Amino acid sequence: MPLEILTIPCLSDNYAFLAHDAASGETALIDVPEAGAIIDALARTGWTLSHVLLTHHHADHVQGLSELLSRHPAKVVGAKADISRLPALDIALAEGDTITIGGDTGTVIDVSGHTIGHIAFHFPASKAVFTADSLMALGCGRLFEGTATQMFASLGKLAALPSDTIVYSGHEYTQTNANFALTIEPGNVDLVARADDIKQARARNQPTVPSTLALELATNPFLRAAEPSVQNGVGMVGAEPVAVFAEVRARKDRF
Ligand code: ZN
Ligand code: FE
Predict the structure, then answer these.
(1) Domain with 145 in it: what CATH number?
(2) What three-state secondary structure class fits 67?
(3) How many domains are there within the chain?
(4) 181 and 135 assigned to the same domain
(5) For the whole prediction, is pTM greater than 0.85?
(6) Residue (of 64, 59, 20, 14) closest to 39 by Cα position
(7) Which residue stretches of the chain have pLDDT < 70?
(8) 80 Cα: distance to centroid of ligand 1 (angstroms)
(9) Are 29 and 18 in contact (CB under 8 A)?
(10) Which ligand gives the minimal distance to the CA of 173?
């Protein structure tokens, strides 16, 4: 049974998500940038929080947790690999481990790169993957702790999910990401069309998250390092895809 998923804008540009199973009443929150917007969403929906899934240790993904738990007790789930930096976990998971929310059993994917110990949660029955600051809408997270090789491998695991998977990422960075992607692949017609959609959505103050994996595969330069058009865009035709990815990431850091 697919989960009902609600996108919750938090702080200035973060997203949290509630994933609700109507049959069991279980409701998971993915990341806690702040307590207030999430407490409001729980009040509005009438859903009872059962789990909090944490993707990585950065403050803008965990800092609302203690205030939230004081109002809405729930099991806290996160990466075993990062247990020393995360808030106290009730359930510590590693790559391949599962977490069941109502009728959907999610699998943990290690997506280290932005941080070491960053995880994503893939819920196949809901066609949903929660990627936070690994694969982002038209982008990927900055390499604060890991290497380009690690992030490239992490993105490769996400790219291998079914292409109709919906990608729930952690930030509204998409307009800037579009401006950057167009510098790499100005002739990609899917990218040009998407950039136009993003501009219109943002002008109406609408979120550009979630997106679909199919759209990311067609337009996201960080997933397209093997494409001749991207290799040409960075002057590295025929180079190893991981080296092309590293160059695209380095250019984005300077953009
Ligand atoms: Zn982060
Ligand atoms: Fe973040």
Answers:
(1) 3.60.15.10
(2) helix
(3) 2
(4) no
(5) yes
(6) 64
(7) none
(8) 17
(9) yes
(10) 2
